[in-house]
Queue: 4 jobs
Job 1
Amino acid sequence: MTTSDAGHPAHPAAPGAWCDRCGEPAGTGDHPACRASRELEPPRYCAHCRRRMKVQVLPVGWSAVCVAHGEIRG
Amino acid sequence: MPEILDQARTQVLGDGVGLDEAGVLAVLNLPDEHLPAALQLAHEVRMRWCGPEVEVEGIVSLKTGGCPEDCHFCSQSGLFASPVRSVWLDIPSLVEAAKQTAATGATEFCIVAAVRGPDARLMKQMREGVAAIRAEVDIQVAASLGMLSQEQVDELVDMGVHRYNHNLETCRSYFPNVVTTHSWEERWETLRMVRESGMEVCCGGILGLGETVEQRAEFAAQLAELDPHEVPLNFLNPRPGTPLGDRPVVEGKDALRAIAAFRLAMPRTILRYAGGREITLGDLGTRDGLLGGINAVIVGNYLTTLGRPATDDLKLLDDLKMPVKALSATL
């Protein structure tokens, strides 16, 4: 997993931020369903600001863009 | 040996005539102890009437999300509180995706858009994208753009699109429970036009939408009546925010029973593993399906979710001594 936006953590979300799958606070509960799903799903929410990201899934890899925090790739 | 499997051995394996709806239902209702025999017979049918080759395909979403239709399983409908946002893929990225797909040994690359049917902007994007792919990548191009007009069918043929996917999704009797913004018959009409155009028809659906076993058999029989070149078989991967987001996934053995039954209904079709197999079947079940009637796979990622790495699937095919169909064999 990589990021093209140096300084911002890539998927999965950093502790204390938002869950990048369900958009709820990452520190509330342990998000077992999100953790289980992550292997087969790209992130949908920005872990920094909870905005829904524009996600493009490609045959190999994916990219997700937050208008405020830039692009991450996996 | 259950009577239905004896009948299928003579009728399907011997004569190449698929089971009817009642026969499919009998297979779907086989107890677990007879599932290995059903899968073995379905494999023999596939080997006899299709051969050992496996057709490998990659898919990509040209236009994601924001769809006006209400297909209850789909995270790309703009009518549900799904986290999927609308996004378009540019032509250079589309060509790169085709190159990535071809590098796996795939012969098929299907361009998909989440729309009711294509508008002028999408058709222009398709024309430019297909031309760019054909100029740079040695791969067959398929498309899935929803419901078409006759003019759009003709235009896709003119572009060089050789196969068109339009899933009926489920049987006619259950369809209104899954989609209310258009009808099963409207989908059938697009499929009729595609067939008459000379493009190959790709039509399948999703199991686990809440249909009964009887309705699964009805669906197999309706697909057999359509006689598509390819049937992609999906298993519901419940998507957050959709009306079917809380449905349970299909049990692995039920999925395998369906694979065997659909193969016995359609002995000559390309029966493709599509979405959902990772969560429904896992690695072991994926192998069982390939030894139970499946003869095509989508490799890599799907439209909004991720798949197994293509290398894992290709290694599995190698282990099973199932050669990947060559491009020359598809022309």
Job 2
Amino acid sequence: MSMLEGRIRIPSGCAISAVISREGRRMTGEKIIESMRPMHERSNGLGGGFAGYGIYPEYKDLFALHIFYDGELCRAACEAYLRDHLEIVKGEIIPTRKIPNITDEPLIWRYFVTPLRSVLASRQLDENEFLARIVMHINTHLQGTYVFSSGKNMGVFKAVGFPEDVGAFYRLEEYEAYCWTAHGRYPTNTPGWWGGAHPFALLDRTIVHNGEISSYDANRRYIEMFGYKCTLQTDTEVITYIADFLQRKQGLSLTELASVIAAPFWSTIKRKPTEEERLNLSFLRKVYPSLLITGPFSIILGFEGGLMALNDRLKLRSMVVGEKDDLTFIASEEAAIRAMEPEAENIWSPAGGEPVIVTVKEGCY
Amino acid sequence: MPGINYFYPEFEVVRNDARCIRCQVCARQCANEVHSYDPERDLMLSDESKCVNCQRCVSLCPTRALKIVKSDCRLRENANWEGDTIREVYKQALSGGVLLSSMGNPKNYPVYWDKILINASQVTNPSIDPLREPMETRVFLGKKPEKLERDENGNLKCELTPQLELSMPVMFSAMSYGSISYNAHESLARASKELGIYYNTGEGGLHEDFYVYGPNTIVQVASGRFGVHRDYMEAGAAVEIKMGQGAKPGIGGHLPGTKVGPDVSRTRMIPEGSDAISPAPHHDIYSIEDLRQLVYSIKEATGHKKPVIVKVAAVHNIAAIASGIARSGADIIAIDGFRGGTGAAPTRIRDSVGIPIELALAAVDQRLRDEGIRGNVSLVVGGSIRSSADVVKAIALGADACYIATAALLALGCHLCRTCQTGNCNWGIATQKPELVKRLNPDLGYKRLVNLMTAWNHEIKELMGGMGINSMALRGNRLMLRGVGLTDAELRILGISHAGE
């Protein structure tokens, strides 16, 4: 038990991939599962997961909570807490398929919920902040309970196992999404707990991440000033909170977010052609020195209507991008892109700190 | 009572007569007049009772004929009543006075820096090679906004309250003109300019010759208000309110009148030869709300163009004090640990008041974070930072930058003999006697300071690179530190794990 995620810090190596339709065309999970097969060596069977966007169109105005429970008692306690704060429109066990490679699963439930208007008004919060606080409360205070997905019309599916097995376990072929991201994990310890797998999510923001950030504790201690609680001690968790803080709370654009967490070097800023650019970039660096993420990373940040891929500023992790028709592919290796689309074009490696932002056409998601 | 006031000298001058060529350099160099030449006997003589072991004669003897050793004529050993303790009793019984000392607390208290170890990358992430990859040590000190704002076109409003930009996270700490010499100040000022950092005037005002270094100068306002006037305030890049000093928490600065010559007198705006004893408190600050008024008065007086630093000594309740300062409008808090140096302080205060900077820093950084106001202020720590490794440990514990003073004086030739208060510094640093001051050549002195800081910056980059960190995002990264041989309470306060955990 002492090795559980969150009690110790576990570095990981990883594989990531993503596919998104700029036209908002929905695809089943099979393609993204295929992408993880050629990168099998990048995982070690101790964590895999997926995020799909646009998968719950029939409930698209409700927050979809995916929760792991250690047992029925935990579920009863959590559901009582949820009922105090939220209207539960639907609650069900997430359908899974028994496969030999995935064992020891917790209880896995999902709920479609909406905040109780009266509670929302009395707390003077918008619904996103309200939901974020509920998630933070459950994950910090309710024993044996872990919310691993909490956005609208999207969902995270993750487990201890190889990613292709995790995809089969969750029957992802039955879901259709306009954007999928995936993760295979190579942790250096046995986490033994499903919450530690990726993607990591808060509201509609998900992160899959390959790398070990050396600035972790500086980032963590800074972000925890703003009500976030890093319970897992993982890089991915802190990156998710940083993205949430900078975008949702500080109103930064994706490009601005990228220039905080993978800030250009001062020497690069000096060479920028316009005064405005120099001013903006140095301003963000001066304000958020503690949110610069150093050490190797490649991340894919998924959100409603798009994604952003980003490397650390030295590009210490591989990441390639490719395209075909309305689809954009991103992965740790070109082989993963070829597995999704053998005819993929325009394959290129983004430079360190250069964000690749892909959005779905307005109104198509 | 004959003999009762006699002590056998603390040091002995050992002269190798076979090597001595009677050049009398030692006699000319020793301002304490230890050495003399007897022409009749053609002998060099020593009055060891005056020796402070500053090593000046040793260093300049052309034939290496001299050494200074600790005297072995001792009182009977006693673990409780040590020789120095007994000697101090004799001294006070004779004089009825307060004991005075200089430089930092020399007692055997724990040095936590030496019980903290730094991490390095192995396998799971790469270390970064500072010889081949960019490595940034630049840091900005000052308040950071809580909420970003945009104009009507959606562009970020990029105005920040005044910040200090440092090329590396180290500054020269406050040492007044008066306590140290003109040439020492010139060396510090020129080095700061070349390095892109700052030095601090201390509480003795700013000599008119050094106004040109204003962009690299922090001007200090202390309880004595020595040398404080409009031009002075406008000359500096930042203004520091000195509430306290690590070497003597609870009391004001001391400058013996022997060091107050015409130039110092004019710069300080006090009469020649008068002792400059600053009041213990600022008499316009009896509480935190008064501090706020002074902070804003200074901001008003300087047109809100300069960050205001509030310097305090590390004392028991430092976390709450710093939290109060962070809400008082200060842009930067400087905390001075109990091992910090001084030109003159009552011995009992220096040796027994205050707390170690490592613990104070850890407690303050954590408290400010717990209260969500760490962004209101930058934290600068000093007293005593001895090496680049101490700097890296301090930053990882949560400091934005470090103040150094003793290390800077060592670079200028100080040999830590701890008798600054006498004004007889043979190395030309802590003295105002022209014949001694000229021994410190500022052209060489400033270069040595630049060398020292350049060397430290290289080392800081190497240590950072080893950790896989290439910017000052190192700040507060306590996971990069481990303790050795520390108790649970010490680890808890430092916010670090024990080595092996």
Job 3
Amino acid sequence: MPGKINNLLNLLTMKNLTQEELDLLQAEEAETKEEIAKLLAPTAIKIKNVTVSFKSKKGLYTALEDISLDIKKGEIISLIGHSGCGKSTLMNTISGMVNPTSGEVIANEQVVKGPGPDRGIVFQNYSLLPWLTVFQNIYEAVDSSFKNISKEEKKAIVEKNLKMVNLWEHQHKLPGHLSGGMKQRVAIARAFAINPKILLLDEPFGALDALTKSAMHIELLKLWNLDNRDKTIVMVTHDIEEAIFLSDRVVVLNNGPASTIKEIVDIPLERPRNKKEIVHHPKYKEIHDKLLSLLIDKFSISDY
Amino acid sequence: MKNTFIKNTIGQIVSFAASMLLLCLIWQGITILTESEIPGPIATWQVAKEMFAEPFYDYGPNDKGIGLQLTASLWRVFLGFGIGSLIAIPLGILMGSSKFIMRLFDPIVQILRPVSPLAWFPLGLLAFKAAAGATIFIITITSLWPTLINTSFGVVHIPEDHKNVSKAFGFSKFKYLTKILIPYTLPHMITGLRLSIGIAWMVIVAGEMLSGGSGIGFFVWDSWNGLSLEKILVAILIIGSVGLLLDKFFNTLKMAFAWENK
């Protein structure tokens, strides 16, 4: 940034600017604005010294110990770690499904006391109600979240969101008749339909095959883009490539019990990202290696 | 597709006919062994034809057609079973939803459930001062347990995933009840109802034997007093067939509401 500002000053002191220089100036100004906006973005989620303990048969089990994390509005954050490291628990403290034993979570400027429609959740196993059609599954969520609008308006919201994930023609089907990818799209449409400021995804693509997964990543980013990148997304995953492709920052958790944050890795790859090109980016390889080393300590059979 | 369906149906009819033939053969064997002390299928068939020729005759309180007796019994069963279900379903939902209520009621259920219907009869007589009320009372109190237990079992086992959907999207209590609890529990509930109606149908015969007056149970007892074993055998076959039909009805109902198969 200081370099850019110098550049700017140099240009400003010149009297006659060529068109080319003017364009450059404008482009840089726009870029700087964007960066400043990012830095100034309000905090959407503030996790303050959160500790979560569960009572178990063997006594008190501490899943998370003293975790603090600030997430900005419009950011996409991945929580990554080994199974049982408490990443889902951490996310559930944001959703309000789990109450911290000590500390607090502030989401949308309010202390989280329980689940609410300002935070949409996409569950690990879709969690669609099997006796309701695709349409009804979304409608019931919309009906619960928007109290003051008419039935027709609610139906229009369902229609808009189902069309967004290209499932409008499947609206009368029961979830049992859908493929895994389609179910996941319904679950995402349901979470988007209640128009939450924060979207929480719990290993959303874990059960999908690699090809469907790839398509869903792009679908998710498309939806996020359509919404002016306004929604804050927190995602739990154990897939490094997925985390890099989607996130602004990747939060790596230590193994449980009593997990803490091991490291927060920035992903400074510009958006919109391209699945095919991004892997050739030198930065990508660097981040990938870094995350891999953070998560795995043995890379070859000779390491044993 | 259509061909296999027809084949299946024909197969079912043929095996059913074979099964009935086997029953008649065993029956005939017993008749021969008892030297016609117990009437055989053919003798019984003769009596049955007379009974079915005029099922709804009414020659005063002690002489009614088999059709009238049957409808009287069915009416009592549905009344008792209906009252029982109206108690069992809401109570089952409450017991399944709240650990406290479960702990409170479960011991009562466990103690009362194994009690024979006949043991309740005197209490029914005392409470209702009439045999008819007592019969319905014993059907109610003995047929409500399977529905109660199955309903509460269903509610207890609602998957955490479904409950989380309700929490995450802020379902109201009413929406939770109608969109999650009842749809999930319905197949369990209907299984309970199916077992309950089976019990109710068993109890009615015993109840009417005690209470007298009318009904298929009374008919069996009356035929015994009149020493018409053929009539008793016809009644047994009718009781069995109606029981089968009631069971089939609830099975069909269960299939219609089982969302797993859809």
Job 4
Amino acid sequence: MNPLLTQFITEAGDLVESADENLLKLERNPHDDDLINALFRAVHTIKGAAGLFDIPAFIRLVHAGEDLLVAARDHRLLLDPAVTDLLLEAMDRIRDWLAALGETERLPDDAFEIGRTLADKLRAFIPPENGPTSAIASDAPGPGSDQIGWLIRIGEEQLLAAFSAAVAENGGSLLAVSYVPDPQCFFNGEDPLHLVGMVPDILALHVGANGDWLPSDLIDPYTCNLVFTLVCRAARAEVEHLFRYVPDQVMIVPLSLDALILPRGRADGGPVVDDFAVTAARLCDRNDQAGLVQAAEALLGLIDPGLYTASIVRWITAVARVSAVAKPGLAGVLAELVRSLAEHRPFDVNRSRSGTMPGLPPSAVSHHHTGFVAPTVDPLFLRILQEQRNILGLPCASPELAGRIASVGRTVACLFASTGQDEALAEVAAASDSALLIRSVQPLAQTLDAMIAVHTPSVAPAAVEVLAAAIAEGVTREHGPTRTLRVDRSKIDLLMNLIGELVVAKNSLPFLARRAEEVHGSREMAREIKDQFAVVDRLAQEMQNAIMQVRMLPVAQMFQRFPRLVRDLARKLGKQVDLVLEGENTEADKNVIEGLGDPLVHLIRNSLDHGIEPSDERIAAGKPATGTIRLAACQEGDCVVIEISDDGRGIDPQHMKAKALEKRMVDVEKAATLTDDEAVQLIFMPGFSTAAAITDVSGRGVGMDVVRTAVEREGGRLTLNSRCGLGTTCRLYLPLSMAVTRVMMVETAGQLFGVPMEVIAETVRVPFTALRRIKAAETTVLRGSIIPVLRLRRLLGLPDDDRERDSEAVMVVRLSNQMVGVVIDQFREGIDIILKPLDGVVGNLSGYAGTAILGDGRILLVLNMREIL
Amino acid sequence: MPILYGGEIAQFLDVCAVDEALDFIEWLRGQSRPKIDLESCTHLHTALFQLIVAMQPEINSLPGNPFLFRCLSEAARIYPPAQKCLVSESVSRGGDS
Amino acid sequence: MSAKTIMLVDDSPTMLMSLEGILSKAGYGLMKATSGEAALETAKGAKKIDMVITDLYMGKMNGIQLIKALRQLQNFRFAPILMLTTESQQDKRAEAKASGATGWLVKPVQPTDLLQVVRQVLPGT
């Protein structure tokens, strides 16, 4: 399978689990923002990753879930049980789909329909948002977007060339772009020049300083002080996409061809020009463009190129050239150019637009302004103003002072001219004049200060401090990362098997040592082998421990399915139950954890079904209406102990006795002698079921005997305590690890048998005198209590021991809280084995737990003491 | 080493990043007649470009990259030391937004 | 010229794998981190990381906090940093920008978009 899909299935699976878990926690604390965020993040991440695959139904469902959670996160929606049910259902569906993806790499056929139905249900819960939140900025006309006064920053020569190029290559729309990068943009990783370089088909370009350059010793190399102005031929969307990270620093305006015509220069004209104007008007009327070009070029040789009129004439040349070719729409422009010359007034492109000019409505290129309008505060505008004010504040030698005042005055004047603030323009001009007069920046500086004050929106300094504090907090909260590695479990299993084999293989060394001594008579060699064995043994032990550690998983993995189980069951039974999880970080071998799941489910079901009372009953009994089931894990010695306790009604010993009598499991005599605790333990008797009615929760037939058997099959123990009216506690004991079993080898009738260490309480030699025979049964007294004694030879049907002896080797075995002595012939060493279950014909022999291969190749039969006794 | 400083000439090589700006301006400040060679420069960060525009070192050779070539020849045309008066003139007529 | 190194930060291994696939094919060197904390740790130790692409929502330290922290490091003052966002996180983009991000990518990231943006913000490649 595609490794990316495999990765996705694993990851999304984990995220669904965590989402499930958080949903349940949230139901208890619906206002916990951290939980909602964690939940949102999980679903959000699933959606993000799902987007990589072609699974629309899946994405649609997760997307709906995400939107719902956004509403919850923004406190527009409370996750009540109904919403939670739906989200849980969605998680279940996603889980199913992930499984299907894992098997077939595609979603089930019904996924589309199911996904749509479920997504619609989820969406039905999402309240409408308050106000528009996702208005696309680029579609809204921004302040000043109809202004292209800044286009004049580009030199006339370039604009003339752009004009010709735009006409010649007929195609693509013209755009004017003004880009004033943020002075601090380098610290955002930006490179404005590089960005501008990516603009396609630039026809004209000007790169200049934003204001004047500072003296070289004051220039900050890391402050960007450039303005880019350009005309390009490209799709607007494409250019906007390019500048999408800096929308506040750029203006992108569609341009009609005639908007490039920006004559400039000193005023003044003269008779030569007037003569030309008359001639030109006549040539225009006659549509004689060639003649016009000729006349214009002749005039340009006569007049000062720095004059405004010269500029007009240059444009007349350019426009006449192209309108002669193929641009009838430009005739109006040409006429207006000529008219402006004759009337001694500035060229006005609007007067030339008689509807024949294709392109934009006049407002798009309007240069006309009406009085002082308080502008919307444009950050760019403000920054330039501030920048200019700063320049005034810099130290300056007196010879340069006049130049600086003039320069600032001009820049600010241009600024106001471009935004149409004529009153401000006049004010600046006046201040600039008086500053020059008294040779001090003072008047101009004051004026600028006032203007900045008017235009600056109030900024709460508190907000800045909060931000700084947040940053500081974010930095101090850092901590070392946990590095984890995800490994396929089959690889760990293989490693575990190999180390198991190694442990067994090393066990052959003691045999080898004995052979060296007995067969080859080399005691020294035998000792050396034993020394080496000690080293290998230690290493193997350490290695085994290390690998065991790898296999250790927190029981949280198993616990996490219970909140959901308890919730669903409680809702079904109409009971109120809190599940408390404790010791989730307790670790155990993964096999143990996996083997534990089913017994635990039964125990928890029992608690819910039979233990916890309905609320009214609980209140009547003086208990809180909501019952509590506690699931706690801890490690005791080399066991993991899992405790399931409830504060329900407990088990009534009298009821148990009555029930046992009724089912004829005990006789009246025996029942009378039973202590309360013993009566409660009757629950473990096969076929005993106390539920008055069989419910679909606990089901039929899964009695406590079955649960106990299952636990014992995993090598564990199960105990139960109950106090009538107060609750029940079950304790599950399981070995930390089950992969390698430590057995004690015992010799009986010339054969070796293995007995799992965990059932052996102790080994003792009992003198014949200490063995008491009561009828057929033997007993002995061990530390004050009487224990039954059985003989392994008899249990296995082997001939009786006829050796001469005055004491017996007795192995004391613990079985479900009861001690039993087992007489064997001789104790041998303890050994680590890998237990292989019996299979084939012998698989049904219940007395054996399995076999293991010994270091010398012999096969060891491992006894199942519970079955034998 | 994207900028090689040899006496009064600095040679720009390959990709010249923003990190070079501090060294470059220090070098520019220390030279009476700085010259730069941009022929082998494939990328010029804005920070370096703007220092060239602002401090007007003599450009010995322009880069091969057409866009850089265009920007620099434009800047060099507008900002040669001898025509400084033209600068303010162009600003005076240009609008800022 | 040596290959440019990009650090990818995302708590989703699937996302990392997908971005890695696209970028490594295009010849970029890659480093990966599955949390903001780990990324910061890597950033402090690494000699040369030319660019960072980070997810927004991650465990404790989110993408914006990571960007702020990275900008405090000498080596990352000017480095391009992109943030992975979704269509619905428009408001976060401005916040990311203000925190020092160069730009953002919209998930699911198309290979052509990714490479185009990387070329845009990481000059000299």
